[in-house]
DNA sequence: GCTTGAAGCTACAGCAGCTGTAGGTCGTAT
DNA sequence: ATACGACCTACAGCTGCTGTAGCTTCAAGC
């Protein structure tokens, strides 16, 4: 029987985060000792590892919920998992494309910085004058 | 005299967001009509454009506060603005490097997907088995 | 059996950076 | 005078945790 602290240590998760996952339904309600402390089995450790790995790959908790659901029903088609992963990949690619634009503009800004007074600073000037910029009106996706 | 709605439209910002910026001290408290509605001048429109552009470049509100402060004091050195921009650039580069790792792993996962039953799904399997993965234990920086 | 200290418990507030809602008021065109 | 869109305040909610306060439980050592 594993304590919450052991699961935390094994997966690099904070204890509170595990309780949070339970609260939002990603982790099951585990058994308890007479004193009310959570005790887990190996299945829960695996499940938590799965969740953490997926989080590291940038999957949202909702996406992970779907993936866990698929994982719990091995007879079902793999297509859905594939679709979720492809969606995630597309998002990653979009973020990278946006970041690349930002990188270019930041580099341009910095390169042109005269190092003089703020009045002549290209960094500030570029920010002030939107017209010479590459980016559109969308907010940056994190 | 410009209404809050006009500023919103001109800068692609939600009205509530402008009020939020005022609340957190990025935008000044503007004058009001007798009825209590906000009225702005051109300076505020410029300031808001500056903020939005910086947000699009991924600057945090705190960084923008610093940049605005520099912009308000044109006689000061440009070095600080340059440092802030360089910091931002470094963050962007780090995010891109991480995203690139994620992209590779996602591509690998998807490529190996058999298209069969979930039981054989590589996507799920890779998530289950952390040992074959490229990423470390840090959480993905957004 | 008793003590101690680490680890666990609940409940709740807070982070960034907004966004949405409810329930009301203002401004202006007709 | 009225209608209606734009505005107002106040507050809750989003994602995904993280931190705190104040308490209880567990396990090891004596």
TrEMBL record, chains A, B:
InterPro entries: DNA-bd_dom_put_sf, MerR-type_HTH_dom, MerR_fam, Tscrpt_reg_MerR_DNA-bd. It comes from the Bacteria. Transmembrane segments: none annotated. SMART domains: HTH_MERR (SM00422). GO terms for molecular function: DNA binding; DNA-binding transcription factor activity. Residues 1-70 form the HTH merR-type domain. Keywords: DNA-binding, Transcription, Transcription regulation. Coiled coil: none annotated. This is DNA-binding transcriptional regulator, MerR family. It comes from Citreimonas salinaria.
